[in-house]
Specification:
The complex is a heterotrimer of chains A (about 300), B (about 450) and C (about 70). Chain A has eight helices and 15 strands. By secondary structure, chain A is α+β, with helices and mostly antiparallel strands. Chain B has about 450 residues and is mainly beta. Chain B is elongated, with a radius of gyration of 28 Å. The relative contact order of chain C is 0.07. Classes of the chains: A alpha+beta (about 300), B mainly beta (about 450), C mainly alpha (about 70). At the B-C interface, strand 1, strand 2, strand 3, strand 8 and strand 9 of B face helix 2 of C.
Chain lengths: ~300, ~450, ~70
């Protein structure tokens, strides 16, 4: 899939900001740079060059993270870890920190958030039909799931044979936050917004306007238009996909899977959007809320953070 | 990986955790996966007191080409030096024997067991094995091997199928192998129970170190001393192996195998001798041994592995019998203690017992009729043996592992019920063989 | 009487079959068995070297795998 997408960057001037966009991690990615002074149709050379440099750096970082942690490549650390056949694999500090974060989420969620559960995604096809996988297939998957079987330290990770890691739930949000750091470094005086397919972060409030207004795919698939989100600063992430589900005997099976049972979490909201300090934290909170099933809203209320749930 | 049940503010914990993540050092260059081959190497030193020494090195390489399509290649080299027992009996006087090449001979001191130290043997072996799934619960494997030493060639192929049942708790397997061996004895093939000629001189000769022989003069050496002898001899071996593997419970797995092996062809050891003695135990002549040209073996092998909290207990038993009347029992056990997360200590013990072949006799009495088959090779006689060993291994942070092991092996040949006439009663006809093994492994 | 014998035989066979069916584990109980040191062919290089030595010093060979020798030492 990613091989047919070209890695190109485009920049254009919009009404009150510059917009750079490219494709990464199977999503449209945009970088919005606030132009403090009022609009000027002709590109301002120095700012234009700075913007181009920033968007290039951000795109390079997004592609670097995609190449390093994508499950669809056979030449990266994830492939090596998932094909180690029970041997230890040496990891660098970035990988350790990411996996350590996954470990923290595992503990905070009482085991519901488990990055070894990705293999369940292979047997559940959420196409709106009534094809549920058989119990024996689910049992076979469950034999290779369980973060408590993983040994992780700063030097290496050790998985049992048959286990595989899936960083799909963290990767994009992590990329957003790493790119926001680049934006803060390179353009410290400007408000920059990064939006990777709905996972958003903003460096600082805009100078002349109170917030950025950005359109993201509406969580409710019945809505044709995009949902407009107002964000001044911090991270925003949405978890869930209302379009992916199975319907059998009048019971709706959402696509958030439990690593304990191998079945979808029952009564989970169709999507959760959270505003947080950074995009990774917001994304993980949204995912943890979904994993609570019926208790999603009360979980988010207890955390005292801004959120929206769609049922 | 502990689960935390306290109701801390998760948002705050995550904010902290993500800041740690984002504050971490800048990313390093992507490490590409350059080596999907796994290597297992070992070097072994085996030494018997006053007898044979062996150095053997192995390199085994394995690669999974995806979806459990696995290739394994193995290269083995071994070098043998030292002296082995010929089967002739000791005497209370000096004895002389011909070297296998027929050129020259060697002397054995009074009271000593005759050992022939002619051999400095090198061998190279190559194995290749391919395994792949053939269906949801069916696996197939096929392989070939070739082995060469100066007087021996071995070629073989094998194939097997394994079928899983009951969620892979049970596996049934069937294997078949065929092996062709060819021996080109130094000095040619001796006549069965033919008389060994008295050597005309003792000492080293340009022919004694056979390596020189074969380097200089491959083709016509054989005929020099024994022009009437035949050259190469062949043997065919077919093996069938039936196996059942069963998971008993979460900690226990068992295996039960039944194997049949049929060998046909030249099964003698052309370098082994049998002494003919009179009623005073004095050697009258020395003959070359003779074994049947067919052998059918059966064996049953049962193994259990038990997973302890920090280690593994492994125990196995093998019962074997054949139509040469040899019956053997082997009991072997290994106990692995994981002393830390990445190191272990493993003691090992092996106990072995065999009965004598029907045609085994430590010597022939000169007033008895000559039997059709006779061998005094102690390895076909009645014998007890035991091995005790210890292994220590460590896994390194980069995924490599090394190990060292030391074993002590002692064989105690026994008298299978033969009266010892005359001077033989005062000589040790069944000396023990004591050996030490040291081995070093490295995996990467 | 014959019928009772037949039933007894079937009953015995059935109980044996059921007895066998209770052996084994569920897929998620294979954590310990999946460890490298629990594989039946673990330490293959060591076992191969040992087999070669015992094949050349004793009269019996094989059991675990094929009995082939491939060398002139026996």
């Amino acid at each position: 899939m990613s091989s047919t997408l070209t890695r190109e960057i485009n920049i254009e001037q919009r009404q009150d900001h510059l917009c750079g966009y490219f494709q990464a991690m199977a999503s449209p990615c945009e970088v919005l740079i606030d132009i403090a002074e009022s609009s000027d149709i002709s590109p301002r050379h120095s700012l234009w060059d700075e913007a181009y440099k920033l968007v290039s750096a951000i795109a390079e970082e997004a592609w670097r993270i995609e190449d390093k942690y994508s499950r669809y490549r056979d030449d990266n650390i994830i492939y090596e870890i998932n094909h180690a056949r029970g041997r230890r694999v040496e990891i660098d500090s970035e990988t350790f920190e990411l996996l350590n974060l996954a470990n923290t989420c595992y503990e905070l969620s009482q085991g519901r958030f488990d990055i070894t559960s990705g293999i369940l995604g292979k047997v559940w096809q959420f196409d709106g039909s009534d094809n549920l996988p058989s119990q024996s297939v689910i049992d076979a998957c469950l034999a290779c799931i369980g973060w408590h079987h993983v040994t992780l330290n700063e030097k290496y990770i050790h998985l049992l044979p048959g286990f595989a890691l899936d960083l799909g739930g963290i990767g994009k949000e992590y990329a957003v936050d790493k790119c926001i750091q680049i934006a803060r470094q390179q353009l410290p005086d400007f408000s920059v917004l990064i939006n990777f397919g709905g996972d958003i972060s903003v460096t600082q409030p805009r100078k002349t306007l109170p917030y950025w207004q950005v359109g993201i795919e509406h969580p409710n698939p019945e809505e044709q238009t995009q949902m407009l989100v107002k964000i001044a600063q911090g991270g925003l992430a949405t978890s869930g996909d209302a379009k992916r589900y199975l319907l059998k005997d009048g019971v709706r099976y959402g696509h958030v899977l439990s690593p304990h049972t191998g079945y979808p979490v029952m009564d989970a909201p169709r999507s959760v959007t959270v505003a947080g300090e950074n995009c990774t934290q917001a994304g993980l909170l949204a995912t943890l809320a979904l994993l609570q099933g019926a208790g999603a809203e009360s979980f988010l209320k207890d955390q005292k953070i801004t959120h929206w749930c769609l049922r | 990986m502990q689960l935390d049940n306290s109701s801390t503010n998760i948002a705050a914990s995550l904010a902290l955790a993500t800041c740690t993540l984002l504050g971490s050092t800048p990313a390093l260059a992507n490490e590409s996966v350059d080596n999907e081959w796994r290597f297992d190497t070992a070097i072994l030193y085996y030494g018997e007191t006053d007898r044979v020494s062996l150095v053997e090195g192995v390199i085994s390489a394995t690669k999974d080409f995806g979806d459990d399509h696995i290739f394994n290649g193995k290269l083995t080299y071994d070098g043998l030096t030292g002296a082995s027992a010929t089967g002739a009996v000791p005497q209370d006087t000096v004895q002389t024997f011909s070297r296998p090449s027929g050129h020259g001979g060697y002397a054995v001191a009074a009271g000593e067991l005759p050992l022939d130290d002619t051999f400095r043997d090198s061998r190279v072996q190559l194995n290749a094995q391919w395994t792949q799934p053939l269906g949801d619960n069916l696996r197939g494997s096929a392989g070939v091997h070739a082995s060469k030493e100066y007087d021996y060639l071995s070629l073989g192929m094998n194939g097997s199928l394994a079928q899983d049942f009951d969620q892979k708790n049970t596996t049934l397997s069937l294997g078949l192998s065929y092996q062709f061996d060819q021996i080109d004895p130094v000095g040619g093939t001796p006549e069965r129970l033919g008389v060994m000629p008295i050597p005309t001189y003792i000492g080293d000769d340009y022919d004694d170190d056979h390596n020189d022989d074969y380097d200089d003069d491959h083709d016509d050496d054989h005929d020099n001393a024994y022009p009437d002898r035949n050259g190469t001899q062949n043997k065919d071996t077919v093996d069938v192996l039936l196996g059942l593997t069963q998971i008993i419970n979460r900690r226990t797995i068992m295996q039960l195998n039944y194997g049949v092996s049929v060998s046909d062809g030249y099964l003698n050891d052309p370098y082994k001798l049998v002494s003919v003695v009179n009623d005073l135990g004095q050697t009258q002549q020395t003959l070359f041994e003779s074994r049947p040209d067919q052998r059918t073996k059966h064996n049953v092998y049962w193994q259990t592995k038990y997973a302890m909290d920090s280690g593994v207990f492994d125990i196995s038993y093998r019962y074997a019998t054949d139509d040469w009347d040899i019956t053997s029992h082997t009991l072997e056990s290994r106990l692995r203690f994981n002393i830390t997360d990445n190191s272990y200590l493993q003691p090992h013990i092996r106990i072995y017992q065999q009965t004598a072949a029907e045609f085994y006799q430590p010597f022939i009495l000169d007033d008895s009729p000559l039997p059709t088959f006779a061998s005094a090779d102690y390895r076909l006689g009645e014998m007890d043996a035991y091995t005790v060993g210890l292994k220590y291994g460590q896994q390194l942070d980069n995924g490599d592992a090394w190990a060292v092991r030391m074993e002590y092996y002692q064989q105690n040949p026994k008298n299978a019920g033969f009266d010892e006439p005359g001077q033989l009663a005062d000589l040790d006809l069944y000396p023990s063989v004591k050996a030490m093994m040291v081995q070093f492994n490295y995996q990467f | 009487m014959k019928k009772i014998n037949k039933l007894l035989c079937i009953g015995l066979l059935a109980s044996q079959a059921i007895g066998c069916a209770s052996l084994g584990v569920q897929p998620w109980e294979r954590d310990l068995l999946a460890k490298e040191e629990m594989a039946l062919n673990a330490e293959g290089v060591d076992l191969g070297l040992d087999d070669h030595i015992y094949f050349s010093k004793e009269a019996t060979s094989g059991g675990r795998a094929f009995a082939g020798g491939g060398c002139g030492c026996n």
